[in-house]
Design a protein that fits this description.
The structure is a single chain. The chain is built from 13 helices and 16 strands. With about 425 residues, it is an alpha/beta fold. The protein has two domains: about 160 residues, Alpha-Beta Complex (Aspartate Aminotransferase, domain 1), CATH 3.90.1150; about 250 residues, Aspartate Aminotransferase, domain 2 (3-Layer(aba) Sandwich). Helix 2 runs antiparallel to helix 9 and helix 3 packs parallel to helix 9. The longest helix is centred in the C-terminal third of the chain and has 22 residues. It is globular. Bound molecules: pyridoxal-5'-phosphate. The site of pyridoxal-5'-phosphate (PLP) has 15 residues, from helix 4.
Length: about 425
């Protein structure tokens, strides 16, 4: 067949680095070849070979309503008929901004950008300008997009300036990014004691979703709020995943904590490319043209993306949706836990709302080091078995899976049945 995934992938490898436009899509972490998707509807993606999969990647988070939700598609189509980009302000931007500011008590003003990466890199520029300080603290295992300042891993002695995780970043630049341990307030205090006069901001995923799902321990986030306040440093919540994922607003609404700045993306674009950053007015007013901090974008506030985002947020605001999502995810997670236990397979399943991660790990997973002790080979084998049976899980152990509103009871039941079969297919241990 001409258009099979295998053929497209080999063609793509000659044209696109690694054959993909974002690395994890290549399925390298699970020792497999990527699927090329032809179309998607509701809870399913259908590849170019005509195979249908129950999808728990959901485009890595944006599709909380499922694929091709009729309300979202209708909004995009209506917007497209009126032109795809103006390079001038439009009504939908105001509507989007008012929905975000209403949903997040900590956001008085918001600027739209085109990706989560743009949102976080702009937010730290702003934090540096506002505080007149240079350094930032990020946590090992948290992901904030691919800007230079964030592609840093912990140095040899953990609580030090980091080293670049990618070639192409001058090592001197990494002196401005300090690495702390997620769920370890003492590691943050130590960095402040050493560098307090020069730390502009602490940036954190309030729920860590990019090392698999790791939940904040009680007092961790409040502790960050207290420490940053004490040292006149800003607290940035990167809610690119968690914005509108767990409630109508961010995880900050649930935790009852007001960060100084918040970054958003994914869900607020309804499946189109979007990011946003917002916060207190006195900080946001430093951004050009109101203030001197430069940040711009040819397609920022794009009318199609705004239309898709506004339609998505309107649906989410109707209520009940978060409760339904949580119930479905809980049923799935409980079912999986039972199946893994019956099969004698040691896993730790972290979950919250409609997010979950199955760690092939025999201990509780709440720190980066325990995350890294997971059995990635075993996860890969489970992933491949599930894929063969028609269930599309994240193609790497260290990612979060998502349940969407389109995942009906029937999808959950089928997924559990497939998981039971997949566990039988795993190589025997020992
Ligand atoms: C996805 C993600 C980003 C980056 O967003 P892109 O749109 O991929 O640039 C930033 N922060 C978090 C927490 C994310 O999950």
């Amino acid at each position: 067949m001409l258009s099979s995934s295998k053929q497209l992938f080999s063609q793509a490898q000659g044209l696109i680095p690694g054959g993909v436009n974002s690395p994890v899509r290549a399925f390298k972490a699970v020792g497999s070849d990527p699927l090329f998707i032809d179309r998607a509807e509701g809870s399913k993606v259908i590849d170019v070979d005509g195979n249908s999969y129950i999808d728990y990647v959901c485009s890595w988070g944006p599709l909380i309503l499922g694929h091709a939700h009729p309300e979202v598609i209708k909004a995009i189509a209506a917007a497209a008929l009126k032109g795809t980009s103006y390079g001038a302000p439009c009504r939908q931007e105001v509507e989007m901004a008012s929905m975000i500011c209403e949903a997040f008590p900590s956001i008085e003003k918001v600027r739209m950008v085109n990706s989560g990466t743009e949102a976080t890199m702009s937010a730290i520029r702003l934090a540096r300008a506002f505080t007149g300080k240079n350094k930032i603290i990020k946590f090992e295992g948290c992901y904030h997009g691919h800007a230079d300042a964030f592609l840093i891993k912990a140095g040899s002695g953990l609580l030090t300036a980091g080293v670049p995780t990618s070639p192409g970043i001058p090592p001197e630049w990494t002196a401005y990014t300090l690495i702390a341990r997620y769920n370890d307030l003492q590691s943050v205090r130590t960095l402040f004691e050493e560098h307090h006069e020069d730390i502009a901001a602490v940036i954190v995923e309030p729920i860590a979703g990019n090392m698999g799902l790791v939940l904040p321990e009680p007092h961790f986030l409040q502790g960050l709020r207290d420490i940053t306040t004490q040292y006149n440093s800003l607290l940035i919540f990167d809610e690119v995943i968690t914005g509108f994922r767990l409630t109508y607003g961010g995880y900050q609404n649930i935790a009852g904590i007001k960060p100084d700045l918040t970054t958003l993306g994914k869900i607020i674009g309804g499946g189109l490319p979007v990011g946003a950053y917002g916060g207190r007015q006195e900080i946001m007013d430093l951004i050009a043209p109101q203030g001197p901090v430069y940040q711009a974008g040819t397609l920022s506030g794009n009318p199609l993306a705004m239309a898709a985002g506004v339609a998505t947020l309107r649906m989410l605001k109707e209520g009940h949706i978060y409760h339904i999502l949580e119930q479905r995810c809980l049923k799935l997670v409980k079912g999986l836990a039972g199946l893994f236990a019956d099969a004698g397979e040691k896993v730790c399943i972290n979950h919250l709302g409609s997010m979950f991660s199955v760690f092939f790990n025999d201990s509780e997973v709440n720190h980066y080091e325990t995350v890294m002790r997971s059995d990635t080979e075993r996860y890969a084998a489970f992933f491949r078995a599930m894929l063969q049976l028609g269930v599309y899980l994240p193609p790497a152990q260290f990612e979060t899976a998502f349940v969407s509103l389109a995942h009906e009871e029937e999808d959950i039941d089928r997924t559990l049945e497939r998981a039971r079969q997949a566990l039988e297919m795993l190589p025997k241990r020992g």
